[in-house]
């Protein structure tokens, strides 16, 4: 050994040996634990070095591999691939491009010229990143076909089946952003299988339910997807950003689609197994070690701890949402509601009522923000006038807080 290894020795100074990997891990872990106890731990995590190759960042690359493997297990695939990205929107974009590459591999070199018009199907409740991805990738927002949803916000499989022009991709949503709806994945997978279509599931929001034995049935059929976007930074509360795109293909499709084989980083004649140089699967060069945040959290809380986090959030969301027969009205953590103020309670249902109700949420929101008592989102949505949307995920929220929320709205709106 030529170097004295201390927690502050830069990793690039250490001589490489497979044996040392475990030493690296220990040093890293010691350092990480030390750093995490300090105020600037998040800054530290966010500013630590890039990790395109194994030699630059052996520990973080192995951590990413381990976390992806675990996430794939929860999806129910026997094998697969994946990459952490800066956001679910970017994961969706990756998936769209990957599906298109599978559909016509020559696009990587020849570009869009000479290609027929390509269309994709998603639901009208999908995340807006679908449109952004379509415009960014040169597919065009007009080539995104929005399939009708039912009254709960779920894609109607019969409407999907009815569509004429053949798409290269169907994107289902598991946990829609506004209503928290889960598309019927099994039925959608049947249709995709029949027509040989790539199925992407945007589980950015709902994916974390996979960790809960009680709620994972919401995503029944997800193992039949070709790709899945899952954000541990949402329901599981990993530090932003922490988002993975997971791909069922394990034959190197992700790498073939994205690699540029820069000779100064990804030399093929290195003395170690270069399949660990996973950075060429990304559209980025340097990346932040986002997988590490999830890994650390998973280690600290265990699968049971994460499961409890999901169960607790969903139980709290249901606190206000059980009808008089004790039946749960809610699927996920999106509690959407109108507050009807005193002056509207005796009014007849009609356009005037809805027009007045539309103005209520913005006024209450303004009042709560100026008073500084709460923050609660509202929006109009698919023909519905402004309603509040409360999403409970923090383990620090209590039932008293849930009661406070409604009491406070009542107080703020008593003269309306
Ligand atoms: C939040 C969300 C996204 C976007 O995730 P970002 O990490 O904010 O880019 C995508 N899809 C769904 C369904 C979401 O709820």
From TrEMBL:
GO biological process: carboxylic acid metabolic process
Pfam families, per database record: Pyridoxal_deC
Keywords, ordered alphabetically: Decarboxylase, Lyase, Pyridoxal phosphate
Cofactor: pyridoxal 5'-phosphate
Superkingdom of this protein's organism: Eukaryota
Key word Lyase present: yes
Zinc is among the record's keywords: no
N6-(pyridoxal phosphate)lysine: residues carrying this PTM: 234
Molecular function via GO: carboxy-lyase activity; pyridoxal phosphate binding
GO CC annotations on file: cytoplasm
Record family assignment: Belongs to the group II decarboxylase family.
Assembly, per entry: Homodimer.
Name of the protein in its database record: Glutamate decarboxylase like 1
Species assigned in the record: Amazona collaria
């Amino acid at each position: 050994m030529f170097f004295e290894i201390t927690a502050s020795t830069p990793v690039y100074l250490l001589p490489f040996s497979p044996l040392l990997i475990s030493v690296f891990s220990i040093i890293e872990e010691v350092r990480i634990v030390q750093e995490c106890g300090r105020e600037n731990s998040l800054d530290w995590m966010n500013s630590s070095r890039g990790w395109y190759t194994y030699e630059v960042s052996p520990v973080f690359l192995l951590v990413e591999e381990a976390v992806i493997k675990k996430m794939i297990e929860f999806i129910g695939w026997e094998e697969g691939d994946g990459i952490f990205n800066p956001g679910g929107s970017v994961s969706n974009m990756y998936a769209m491009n990957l599906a298109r590459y599978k559909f016509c591999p020559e696009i990587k070199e020849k570009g869009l010229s000479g290609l027929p018009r390509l269309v994709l199907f998603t639901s009208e409740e999908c995340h807006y990143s679908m449109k952004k991805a379509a415009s960014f990738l040169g597919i065009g927002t007009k080539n995104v076909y929005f399939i009708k949803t039912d009254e709960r916000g779920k894609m109607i499989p019969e409407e999907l089946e009815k569509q004429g022009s053949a798409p290269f991709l169907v994107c289902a949503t598991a946990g829609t952003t506004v209503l928290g709806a889960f598309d019927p994945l099994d039925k959608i997978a049947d249709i995709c299988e029949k027509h040989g279509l790539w199925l992407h599931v945007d589980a950015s929001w709902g994916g974390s339910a996979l960790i809960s034995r009680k709620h994972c049935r919401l995503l029944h059929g997800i193992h039949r997807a070709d790709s899945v976007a899952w954000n541990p930074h949402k329901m599981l509360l990993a530090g932003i950003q922490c988002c993975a795109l997971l791909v069922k293909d394990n034959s190197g499709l992700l790498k073939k689609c994205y690699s540029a084989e820069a000779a100064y980083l990804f030399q093929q004649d290195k003395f170690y197994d270069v399949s660990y140089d996973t950075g060429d699967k990304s559209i980025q060069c340097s990346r932040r070690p986002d997988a590490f945040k999830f890994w650390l959290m998973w280690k600290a809380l265990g699968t049971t701890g994460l499961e409890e986090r999901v169960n607790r959030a969903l139980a709290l969301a249901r606190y206000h949402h059980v009808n008089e027969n004790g039946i749960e009205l809610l699927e996920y953590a999106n509690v959407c509601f109108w507050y009807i103020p005193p002056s509207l309670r005796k009014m007849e249902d009609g356009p005037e009522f809805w027009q007045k109700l539309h103005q209520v949420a913005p006024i209450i929101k303004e009042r709560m923000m100026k008073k500084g008592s709460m923050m609660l989102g509202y929006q109009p949505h698919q023909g519905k006038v402004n309603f509040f949307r409360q999403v409970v995920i923090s383990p620090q929220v209590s039932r008293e807080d849930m009661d406070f929320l409604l009491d406070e709205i009542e107080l703020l709106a008593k003269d309306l």
